[in-house]
Amino acid sequence: MRDITISGKTIKRAGLVLVGVVLTVLLGAGSCDEEQTNAQKAAQDKAANGETFIPTNDIERRNYNARTELADNPASLIWCSVYPSNPNVKAFTVPIVGKLTSGGKRPYPTEIVRKGNETSYFPEFPDPNGMYGSSSDYKYGFDPAGNYHEFVGVEMRCTSVPSIIQQQTTQLEINVDGDLGLIDAKVQAALKACRDVDHDPSHACPEAARLLGM
Q: Second label for 184, Cα 20 to 30 Å away, from 43, 53, 124, 153?
């Protein structure tokens, strides 16, 4: 293997081969970088010039308003199914008036900051119900008989429509048999009559409680 002389300097053939390999790697890396840059530019052009669908039916707000209206109705009834982590405890369903309330909700600001000896509240904004604080796993509510129910650290599913699945797979916390849909409608009518007189969900509605056998 003969050496090569360039500008008076002798370069070993093996060194020349190594230089060639390095140059090839560098040129390949430069090609990859160029392809990546081109791909990024193409993506940016697509993002800048692509058409984006603009919602016109305001579904998000309609869903929010409908849910808030349901929760604000003192005569509404929701069926909350609880699935305990203990496999030996059967899932159960409890009728709740109006909605479940998070244990973190308060009628006053919950975030505070102290400056010296003075205490002042952070500018925390209330939710649409005029309450402060955040949601948490601890929730509570009242059934039509005015009984208090508290749920902590359990999986739940609440619905305004009692289903046959709930009737067959959970233990219903009521003492009547029959079509849950018909019972639900009668209970809500009874709750409306009661709440027209008294809005307090912790006060029993005798007729609604009778319909549920509570």
A: 153
Q: How do strand 118-121 and strand 77-83 relate by DSSP bridges?
A: unpaired
Q: Which amino acid is at 99?
A: K
Q: Which helix (H) or strand (E) holds 103?
A: none
Domain spans, the chain? 4-46, 73-101+138-214, 104-135
Question: Does the pTM exceed 0.85?
Answer: no
Q: Are 94 and 80 in contact (CB under 8 A)?
A: yes
Q: What is the CA radius of gyration of the chain?
A: 34
The helix (run of H) or strand (run of E) holding residue 168 is: helix 164-169
